[in-house]
TrEMBL record:
Alphabetized Gene3D superfamilies for the sequence: B-lactam Antibiotic, Isopenicillin N Synthase, Chain
Protein name per UniProt: Fe2OG dioxygenase domain-containing protein
Keywords (A to Z) from UniProt: Iron, Metal-binding, Oxidoreductase
Species for this entry: Linum trigynum
Recorded family membership: Belongs to the iron/ascorbate-dependent oxidoreductase family.
Keyword Transport listed: no
Length: 363
C-alpha cells in the first residue's frame, strides 16, 4: 500500500465494493433495420419505443448490428494497445497540456481524485474550432490540433477511420432519440455542423488496490451522447436509476454501450437524464476501452428545446454556451480544484416553490 499514491484513494463512501452486482435489464437494442442500403427506410415505431424506454428507464443501453465494421474496431483497439505498451518517455512526447489539449495524459482527476488510467485524446475534426477562453465576453476562436506519435505509425489512420465510422452511428442514434421525443428526425443535426466531438483511448493498468481506487470516479458525461467500445475485461458500472445501486455493465461482444449526456438532459428538459457511472479497476488484468464523445459546435447555446417547453412543463435550465462550458471543464484536467467543477445543475432554474421560499427569506 505504501507504494500507491494516496491521491488515487477514493473517499470511504465512494470506494468500490468488490462484490459485483450484475446489471440485469440494461437494454440491448438491435439496429439491423437501420443498416440496410435503402436510405429511405424509416425506423419502426417498435425501435423508437425501445430507444424511448431505454433513455427514460436507464439513460444507458447497448446496441448490436450497428453498422460499424468489426475490423475498424479491431484496428483501433490493436493500435491503442501498441501505443500504451511503449515506455512512458515515448508516450509523453505527445503529452497534452493547457495549450495543446489533445494527446497523451496520465494524471487526470475526476471529482478531485486521481484516476487509475492513462489516455490518448483526438478530435474527429482536425482542426477543431473552439472558443478561445471561458470568459463570457471573449468572442475569439481558437483551434485544437491532434498530436500524433511516431509509433505505432498506423495509429492515426486507425483512429481517423474509427472516428468517422462511429460518427455515422452517433448521428443515427441522435435521429432515433429525436423521434423518441416526438421531434423530427433531423432536429439535432444542425448542432453538430462544427462538432467538438472527440475519441479517447483508455488504458487501465492492473491496480494493486482495487478496493480503494477507481479507473474513473463517479461522473456524468457533459456532452450529448457517448458511444463506448470496451474489451472483454469489463469495469464499467452504472448507477441504476430505480434504486441508486452501482451495477456492472457486462461486455457484450461487438456491442457498443450508449449513454445519454448532460446536453440531451437539457435539450429534453429532463425527459431524459444523464446517469452517473464509474470504472472499476482489476488487480490482475489491464483493460482497454474507447469512448466516442459526440459533442456539438462550440457556439451552440444549450437550452431546453422549444418544442418540449410549455406552460405545463416550463424550461428547467437557463441557456449556456457549450464552448465556454467545455473550456472550463478542460481547464480542470490540469489542476486539482478546491470546488466542484462546472455542472449543468449550476444552470438549473429553481422550482417555483424554491423560488418562493428564497423570496420569503429575503423579506
Amino acid at each position: 500500500m505504501g507504494e500507491v499514491d494516496p491521491a488515487y484513494f477514493q473517499q470511504p463512501e465512494h470506494r468500490p465494493k468488490l462484490e459485483i452486482v450484475q446489471a440485469q435489464g440494461i437494454p440491448l437494442i438491435d439496429l439491423s433495420e437501420l443498416t440496410s442500403n435503402d436510405p429511405s427506410q424509416q425506423p419502426s415505431e417498435n425501435l423508437v419505443e425501445e430507444i424511448r424506454n431505454a433513455c427514460r428507464g436507464w439513460g444507458f443501453f447497448q446496441v448490436v448490428n450497428h453498422g460499424v465494421p468489426l475490423e475498424t474496431r479491431q484496428r483501433i483497439m490493436a493500435a491503442s494497445k501498441e501505443f500504451f505498451a511503449q515506455p512512458l518517455d515515448e508516450k509523453r512526447k505527445v503529452r497534452r497540456d493547457e495549450k495543446r489539449v489533445l494527446g497523451y495524459y496520465d494524471t487526470e482527476h475526476t471529482k478531485n481524485v486521481r484516476d487509475w488510467k492513462e489516455v490518448f485524446d483526438l478530435t474527429v475534426e482536425d482542426p477543431t474550432f473552439v472558443t478561445a477562453s471561458h470568459h463570457p465576453d471573449d468572442q475569439e476562436v481558437d483551434e485544437w490540433h491532434n498530436q500524433w506519435p511516431d509509433f505505432p505509425p498506423h495509429l492515426r489512420g486507425a483512429c481517423e477511420e474509427y472516428g468517422r465510422a462511429v460518427e455515422k452511428l452517433a448521428f443515427k442514434l441522435m435521429e432515433l432519440i429525436a423521434l423518441s421525443l416526438g421531434l423530427r428526425a433531423d432536429r439535432f443535426e444542425g448542432f453538430f455542423k462544427d462538432q467538438t466531438s472527440f475519441v479517447r483511448l483508455n488504458h487501465y493498468p492492473p491496480c494493486p488496490v482495487p478496493h480503494l481506487a477507481l479507473g474513473v470516479g463517479r461522473h456524468k458525461d457533459a456532452g450529448a451522447l457517448t458511444v463506448l467500445a470496451q474489451d472483454d475485461v469489463g469495469g464499467l458500472e452504472v448507477k441504476r436509476k430505480s434504486d441508486g445501486q452501482w451495477v456492472w455493465a457486462s461486455p457484450t461482444p461487438d456491442a457498443y454501450i450508449i449513454n445519454v449526456g448532460d446536453i440531451i438532459q437539457v435539450w429534453s428538459n429532463n425527459v431524459y437524464e444523464s446517469v452517473e457511472h464509474r470504472v472499476m479497476v482489476n488487480s490482475e488484468r489491464e483493460r482497454f476501452s474507447i469512448p466516442f464523445f459526440f459533442n456539438p459546435s462550440h457556439y451552440t447555446v444549450v437550452e431546453p428545446l422549444e418544442e418540449l417547453v410549455s406552460n405545463e412543463s416550463r424550461a428547467k435550465y437557463k441557456a449556456y454556451n457549450w464552448g465556454k462550458f467545455l473550456l472550463t471543464r478542460k481547464a480542470s484536467n490540469f489542476k486539482k480544484l478546491d470546488v466542484e467543477n462546472i455542472q449543468i445543475s449550476h444552470f438549473r432554474v429553481p422550482e417555483l416553490a424554491d423560488a418562493l421560499e428564497g423570496a420569503l427569506k429575503l423579506n
